[in-house]
Design brief:
about 325 residues; alpha/beta; Peroxisomal Thiolase, Chain A, domain 1; 2 domains; five-stranded mixed sheet; 10 helices; about 30% helix; binds acetyl coenzyme *A
């Protein structure tokens, strides 16, 4: 500003993170006994080596609750400190109530409010963006943002073109209102760019629903078609996040992409000249866990000390809808 006084602003700063995975691991070798596939094919086309699959006693809400409790412990907080829960999921425990409200109850909370966000694999990017808007709008001070999925429950386990790709899990972060200086040196969410285009519905969708078939349905995907659009859409929103903040690939400490496919991740990073050493990869361990993949990757890389306080971190995702988006934040 002309008088030299910087305009203070409210930022949504990460206070804690956590993750949870089902007990059961299914390796690519295990998949060979389920469908006509091979470890070599799966690794070469996707980078996936194993995935976790929920057992009878595990659900989206139970995994989300476990991730939430881990994030609370990591942040030194209790459920009493949270005033909003947003859960990104496409595999809710029930059509309603929202999984977030279920998780709220499991956490013993009856204060505050909770709702779900449905943007498939881009769900966590949408949820962080929504939480940031609520914080900056003064509607919430401390938000538990969860991505939780049990995609194993909507897979056609006879379809080798899809069932080898997905897994179950949950991750969570807590973001809280903190005064910043209004510059890119601030910690917290710096910018968000969300997109959707429903004309691509047939390329990736679930063939059931309460209002159409009255059934849950199974995931259907034209993988090659999705692949064709993925890199362009992802790099477009990442570039928008760089442009709107005056930052570049060189400024970035970590790219934490949605973990769908190693080739899409590598292609996107290469196109934007993002050093491969700055890219967090967990698709080999988790498969594609849709809305859970980014918070799982964040918890992995922050948990092992790679992502540190003050690091510039880009989140990006693309998925069913199509939906896609990017969030740039300083950890
Ligand atoms: N094991 C062995 N062979 C297989 C398998 C399998 N699991 N699945 C397909 N094949 C065969 C096909 O039948 C085909 O055989 P053919 O040539 O005899 O017809 C051959 O492998 C090649 O199939 P393609 O579909 O062309 O393989 P492609 O190289 O495109 O890889 C893949 C498929 C991995 C799905 C790729 O297209 C992809 O990654 N697409 C993007 C999908 C994605 O990332 N979706 C998620 C993003 S959105 C979200 O996260 C919800």
């Amino acid at each position: 500003m002309s008088d030299g006084v910087q305009s203070k602003m409210i930022r949504s700063v990460v206070r804690g993170f956590g993750a949870a995975l089902p007990k059961r691991v299914i390796t690519n070798r295990d998949m060979e006994a389920i469908v006509d596939t091979s470890d070599e094919w799966i690794v070469q086309r996707t980078g996936i080596r194993q995935r976790y699959v929920a057992g009878d006693d595990e659900t989206t809400a139970s995994l989300g609750e476990a991730a939430a409790r881990a994030a609370l412990a990591n942040g030194g907080l209790t459920p009493a400190d949270i005033d909003l829960i947003i859960c990104a999921t496409s595999t809710p425990d029930n059509t309603f109530p929202a999984t977030s409200v279920n998780i709220q109850n499991r956490l013993g909370m009856s204060h505050g409010f909770a709702f779900d966000v449905q943007a498939v694999c881009t769900g966590f990017v949408y949820a962080v963006t929504t939480a940031d808007a609520y914080i900056r709008g003064g509607l919430a001070k401390r938000v538990l943002v969860i991505g939780a999925e049990t995609f194993s429950r909507i897979l056609d386990w006879n379809d080798r073109t899809t069932c080898v790709l997905f897994g179950d899990g949950a991750g969570a972060i807590i973001i809280e209102a903190t005064e910043g200086e209004g510059t890119v040196a601030d910690r917290g969410v710096l910018t968000a760019h969300l997109r959707s285009d429903g004309s691509h519905k047939e390329k990736l969708y679930v063939d059931g629903g309460p209002s159409t078939t009255g059934t849950v349905g199974k995931l259907r995907m034209e993988g090659r078609e999705v692949f064709k659009y993925a890199v362009g859409m992802i790099t477009d929103v990442i570039q928008a996040a760089f442009d709107s903040t005056g930052t570049t690939a060189d400024d970035l400490d970590w790219l934490v992409p949605h973990q769908a496919n190693r080739r899409i991740i590598d292609g996107s990073a290469k196109k934007l000249n993002i050093d491969a050493a700055k890219v967090v990869i967990t698709v080999d361990l988790h498969g594609n866990t849709s809305a859970a993949s980014i918070p799982l990757a964040l918890a992995t890389a922050a948990g092992d000390g790679r992502i540190k306080k003050g690091d510039l971190v880009m989140l990006e995702a693309m998925g069913g809808g199509f939906t896609w988006g990017a969030v740039l934040l300083r950890w």
